[in-house]
Design a protein that fits this description.
Blueprint (H helix, E strand, L loop, with lengths): L5 E12 L2 E12 L3 E5 L6 H9 L6 E6 L5 H4 L3 E4 L11 H11 L6 H9 L15 H13 L5 E5 L7 H18 L2 E5 L3 H5 L4 E6 L2 E7 H8 L2 E6 L2 H11 L4 E5 L3 E5 L5 H10 L4 E7 L3 H17 L1
Parallel strand pairs: 3-7, 3-8, 5-6, 6-7
Antiparallel strand pairs: 1-2, 1-4, 8-9, 10-12, 10-13, 11-12
Length: about 300
């Protein structure tokens, strides 16, 4: 099976403002069709990284390739972005704002304006001045601007800021449809991690300008899924006992002494008894499992603990 095209590759990206290093040796790869969720605290470097990728600021060092090419000026025409707050002309209408952006970016056809207004549920507000818009409407207009011309790579920095729960769900479905039906690759950051967990297919965790970890949604779900975590002195014998006694559960062996049992919701003391009766020494047993927010919090706590050690 052919490996998906690398849409974005960032190597050893550093960005410093004076002595303040906001990005420190960041490496990032996004493949075609992925929805890459960038996770980090305020000031972690998410917006700075997006600005470097889109050309809004230059890296101090490192290199970026887009769509397999290093001629970034041409390739950046394939990107649509919303970074931090949308830049809008308040005394102009939504349609006029979109027309300015369309003209500046050389996107042919005014029909693209009607298309994105409809996608973002702003068709009836197209001729209204932006200063009369709610915060959520301004945010949706910012997303509409990013969608002009059907970009191949969409970069969205906290796109659901200011949206009510109904519109958050609406925007999520729009992005999912674009990804699944049009093949749009998406890089998105959000501090609302449960929402991001419903959308992203790959995650990058960034802290103090450093990329801590990159993980796929399947790998994350495997780590976060609620299960019985068992550490034993004889993993082969233990897995045979568990397979025989609990055929309805999924038994997986990790490392040399770790077994994880998925789909088991009874008393874990029963497992301990079965293993001990079978001659297996149980060193540790307990329920484990997290959601994205818990996983990130625990990862960050571990990093901060190491920093102060």
């Amino acid at each position: 099976m052919k490996e998906p095209e690398k849409i974005l590759e960032a190597k050893d990206i550093c960005k410093a403002y004076g002595k303040n290093m906001v990005l420190n040796q960041v490496n990032l790869t996004i493949k075609a069709g992925e929805i890459y969720g960038l996770v980090g605290e305020n000031g972690a470097g998410k917006s700075s990284l997006m600005k470097v990728i889109t050309g809004l600021t230059k890296p101090t060092s490192g290199e970026i390739s887009l769509f397999g090419k290093k001629n970034l000026e041409d390739e950046r025409n394939k990107i649509g972005c919303l970074i931090e707050n949308p830049a809008l002309y308040m005394d102009m209408t939504a349609r006029q704002n979109l027309e300015i952006q369309r003209t500046q970016r050389g996107i042919p056809g005014k029909s693209s304006i009607d298309e994105v207004l409809e996608i973002m549920d702003l068709k009836d507000a197209g001729n209204k001045r932006v200063k009369a818009f709610s915060l959520g409407m301004k945010q949706r207009l910012g997303i509409a601007i990013a969608l002009l011309g059907r970009p191949q790579l969409l970069i969205l920095d906290e796109p659901i800021n200011g949206l009510d729960p109904t519109k958050i769900k609406y925007v999520r479905e729009v992005l999912k449809n674009m990804n699944e039906e049009d093949g749009t690759t998406i890089l998105i950051s959000s501090h609302i991690l449960p929402e991001l967990h419903q959308l992203a297919t790959v995650y990058g965790f960034i802290h103090h300008g450093k990329m801590l970890q990159q993980i796929t949604d399947k790998e994350l779900d495997e780590k976060c899924r609620r299960h019985v975590h068992i550490e034993v002195d004889n993993v082969e014998k233990a897995s045979c006992i568990l397979d025989e006694r609990y055929p309805e559960s999924q038994i997986k062996v990790y490392l040399r002494n770790v077994i994880k049992v998925f789909g088991y919701n009874k008393n874990i003391s029963d497992i301990t008894k079965e293993l001990v009766y079978g001659g297996v020494g149980v060193e540790k047993i307990g329920y484990e499992g997290e959601d994205l927010e818990e996983y990130y919090t625990n990862l960050l706590s571990e990093v901060k603990s190491n920093e102060t050690a």
